[in-house]
Design brief:
This protein folds into two domains: 6-124 and 250-263, Rossmann fold (3-Layer(aba) Sandwich); 128-246, Dihydrodipicolinate Reductase, domain 2. Helices cover 32% and strands 24% of the residues. The protein has ten helices and ten strands. The protein has helices at 15-26, 41-48, 63-66, 79-88, 106-114, 128-134, 157-161, 180-186, 192-200, 249-263, and strands spanning 6-11, 31-37, 69-72, 92-95, 117-119, 139-148, 173-179, 207-213, 220-228, 232-239. A five-stranded parallel sheet has the order 2-1-3-4-5, with helices on both faces. Strand 4, helix 5 and strand 5 form a beta-alpha-beta unit. Helix 1 (15-26) crosses helix 10 (249-263).
Length: 270
Amino acid sequence: MPTKHQKVAIAGLGAIGKALARKLDDGIPGLSLVGVAARDKAKAQRFLDTLKKPVPIVALDALGCTADIVVECLPADLFVQVATRVLAAGKTFVAVSVGALLAAPHLLELARECGGQIIVPTGALLGLDAVTAAIEDEIQSVKMKTRKPVNGLVGAPYLVANKIEIEGITEPKLVFSGTAREAAKGFPANVNVAAALALAGIGPDLTTIDIWADPTLTRNIHHIEVESNSARFSMTIENIPSENPKTGRITALSVVAALRKVTSPIRIGT
């Protein structure tokens, strides 16, 4: 039986939303872009005018009625509002600001009750397949170290609340050490990778992360170490930032890869 054609909407037109819109406009088999939601409608329309196919701007609350799949590319404070509407409509919600999911576990029950689904793309992280496999047996520890250029961390709520100054530093500085749950709250735009790792493995309270501001870097570097009954493994990835220094270019590409799996006749990876 042929795969059903899926309609996709994008919530937010920042660096990730724009990159995804361009990919969908170029064409992904079985998928079509049917709407976007954006706070600045005039700015959004100027971008949409550069696409080959017309795409309407729709209200955030209407996304669940517009599309089969809604990709969230929003500030974390809008996450629950959009996710609730989409999942209550029994649709698929692709979470980019996955750190916000840690503070809203009720969304998992809502998806279960209404027949919706939450997809968490791999994003700027590698090795999630190995982690999800290892948790089927037992994982003893998951540790992560993130090193980012200074401009990728400036303004993070944790730094502001604790009066941690990083602008002008001349050597690497450890700015946070704690759990993935604490990191997601203190760095909502910076370490969604830690939340994805936690959800894939032993949870946000047992997954630990150190965050470094490093003025010598031009890339975001994530290093993960996992101890489990089935394997011991470590992974390092260096991500090139997008036009938004808080986000790696590979994040948007990961969303595209996740969407391709929805309609592809072959699926690679767990």
